[in-house]
Amino acid sequence: MSFTQRPHAALALAIHLAIGTSLAWPANTFAASASIDENRTYDIAAGSLTENLSRFAGASGVALSFEATLTQGRKSPGLNGRYSVDAGFAMLLAGSGLQAVRQSNGVYLLKVTDNAGAMELGATSVSGYALGELTENTGSYTTGASATATQLSLSLRETPQSVSVMTRQRMDDQQLNRLTDVLEQTPGINVAYSGMDRFDIYSRGSTITNYQIDGITTQSDSQTRTIPQTSMDMVLYDRIEVLRGASGLMTGSGDPGGLINMVRKRPTRDFQAHVQAGAGSWDLYRSEVDVSGPLNAEGSIRGRLVGAKQTQNSFMDAYGSDRDILYGVMEFDLDDDTTLRTGVDYSKIDIDGAAGVPLVYSNGQPAHFSRSTSVGARWAKDEIQTYNYLVALQHRFANDWSLDVAGNYMDIDRTDLIGNYLFKDVGVLPSLNQTTGNARADRGLANADQTQKGFNLTLHAPYELFGRAHELVTGFNYTSYDNTHNVLSDGISNLFNFYTWENYLPEGTTYTPSFVMKTHYQQRGVFIANRFKVTDDLNLILGVRNSDYSYDYSLRYYTGTAGSTSRRRENGVVTPYAGLVYDLTPEQSVYLSYTDIFQPQSNQDRNGVVLDPVTGQNYEAGWKGAFFNGALNTSAAVFEVKRDNLAELDIGYTIPGTSNSAYRAVKGAITKGYEVELNGQPVQGWNLSSSYTHAETRDAQGDRNLTTIPVDMVKFWSTYNVGGNWNALTLGGGVNWNSPTYVAFSGTTIKQDDYAVFNAMARYQFTAKLSATLNLNNLFDKTYFSSINGAQGLYGNPRNFMISTRYDF
User: Exposed, middle or buried, 68 (CB in 10 Å: 0-12/13-18/19+)?
Assistant: First the structure.
């Protein structure tokens, strides 16, 4: 039995082996979970003080904040044996003149000792820079560092762009199990349904098409709707980092809306494991297992195995989904300074039926259908299998220099058995007759074969010049994207009665080839960025990227209809980056930044010609604060995004030979807006996330664009540990509010008024290892369209619940 042929059986077997193996591994291989006062076994070789502190903080599960210059160039004697957290810090810092002091909120602060042994702040003030970017086991809603914007590992306060980090704790608290669940809660992000469990993600007036996995760029193309990234399961990930604004320095091409970086979980140096099972509304059942730890006594080889299985029906008739997830990864310490990581993750997602409701009739009148309505036949199915392979090598040189080499290979196979009511896009009225209920059905077969390859080589080089510490990062990256999309049709105009069909539709019997669409994209580029410490309070980040890319697109019809092709080659595309950060105080800074990007596109005009690449520039200014030693991050920003060649629906026109809507290039489209954000822990036991975003896009004529995306959004979520005699209880709640949206047809406008959705949770910690969590979503059962897209609308979920139990070994 091969894994490819029977992934369900393989997943079940792997999970069984994971649990069995974790319980059978020798007890002396692992160090059990410990509090800060308990002893724990560590094996950290002598080496860089920065690196050793990072390893120790991650292994002990504590957060450490300090100014990077305090440890730059220093060495540590290492740590071998059993130590408490305080004793471990003391050994690692021996002879350095530094000491780690625990603050009231649990964060450790690195300070300098004078000759008499008294404690005082170092000559460089503490900036809230937290060692390590991993968020697992921190219990926090924020992180101390992010490299998504520039590949420079900076605190959020030091980064001159808007970056939001959705941590492991946040995902666990709200049971955000899919990427779209996470993004719906992320500041400044709007999730728009685009059919068959696929979504378009919007930020600052455009879609986000760049998705990184561990910092390696992958592409998405909505033309064929084969977008595996938006359906990825979060059980694999430590955190999701979302950059809003152009990301051209790191990705070269892309839309100026932003970048989503999904960072996988990594093997841990100490044993940890958990199993989790839950159930919820509409026959939702989900189980997870996660086992991690050293595979030899020295801990130089570490492994992790993660699996999940979920089945769920829906509040919509004849619609549901199944998902199987498996992830295995290993790390090898080749020597004291070199680490190799390799792994693979697999996902299989089955979607039955098709979601959504018709918004308009053939006579142009608005339609009103209940939330239980869906548009898919009971036999319709969309299946996506994704294999994702990774390899990464890091070597650490003297003086905190490091070289990172990483590669990613993604293989996606999609099979779509099409059977649904035939929607038309904006400007073309659908077939549904208001009086009779007669409508046309779309029946067919489709398959897509997609491969993506990515490679990064990055050198980090901190250095001193003119008595100040600066940091250089330079590198090369490569990405390729190939997608072949075949569609077959039964060739019959299938009429049925939408009012009475109850999702029963005769299945097609004879399918003939209709068309094949092929897309090839390849890009390679070199980049360099430098953070100059101009004065004690002023930092300047300058960067530039040089990119070469090739883009090939072809659409061929088997029916004799003329197809289309496009071929583009560009060399030496220059993408600049500039950011200025001024420290008002050790906790607060103001910044200015300019970022740039370009994006080839496959959208076609009314003549079947592919539009020129979109170009985008992002101007941003803001204020950021990192309070309580970095436990609470806040920001406020104003921005302007300029785009040329932005694809806009050419109302009333279709691509020749197809029913697909044509697009036109919009010159001078501008998005202006502002946002405020707060994430973290004001006091111990209280996590808080809050944001407000205003972003409005207008074309060159001053007319509002993207009317289906809300101009204003408020997102709020908070949890609080009750403490005292009820310290086992954590309560949480929040609200998401969206301003009105609409879509215009010929003589018809479909509107969604502003709406608010309230959510809540409660967790009870029965023992140190066993807990149960209850999540209640849409508490007041608000009826609303979460997405309106052309002639199709998607209702938001009615009131629903999920209860899950977790046991940590």
Answer: buried
